[in-house]
């Protein structure tokens, strides 16, 4: 049963829109957490999606939308655009050779990181070393300027750092993730159509019956480098629908181990999007 038709009904109320500089009334649908308690066992989960067609947001009950967390690999969404917009990379097929001396493999690296990568393959595989090389070429000053223009979290990029999105220096909240995507997808940023099309191609997760799910996962230990501690993870993206405006969303989760969020974050985000009415039932089956 859809949660919005369950005994615990969705609540609607007027709030100031977080997606514009004006005080625009929007409705907010609250998905009750109680029917989802078993699925969320052992995890803290926050979820937000925004429909600019209707000025409605859909939120999982008790979500923390304002605390900033490390973006981890979800930063590859703006990072892909920054690489293209600065000219550091000239397209999705731009290949970089893996320099094993400069970027030695860590024991947690999957096999598909341990090879040369294109921009598209590095995005899809979350190959960190490729984007670390990009970060060196772009430079911290450029990052800070662009991230401030885009209001991307705290916009922190220290000089000489190629890990700022991986060590929790850069931080962003659930609402800021969604707001960034909302502005990006509405054309509010000065981003070339070719760059946005490249992101659209690289981020496509699944397409069926006129619905296209775009997304990027990200995760890491709450204490960077300490894989024995609890993990945090994201699934961030948007739903594209024929003839309608895209719906950006963000799911953030914490759990005791990586295994408890690895598949959960994407699967549960899809569940939330179905409950919100933004994806058809059985979308991922």
Tell me what the structure shows.
This protein is an alpha+beta fold. The protein has a single domain, classed as Beta-lactamase. It is 27% helix and 23% strand. The protein has eight helices and ten strands. The chain has an eight-stranded mixed β-sheet, with helices on both faces. A two-stranded antiparallel sheet has the order 5-6. Helix 1 packs antiparallel against helix 6. It is globular and about 50 Å long. It starts with 13 loop residues before the first strand and ends in a 10-residue tail after the last helix.
Task: Give a short summary of the structure.
This protein has a single domain (3-247, 261-275), classed as 3-Layer(aba) Sandwich (Beta-lactamase). Helix content is 27%, strand content 23%. It is built from eight helices and ten strands.
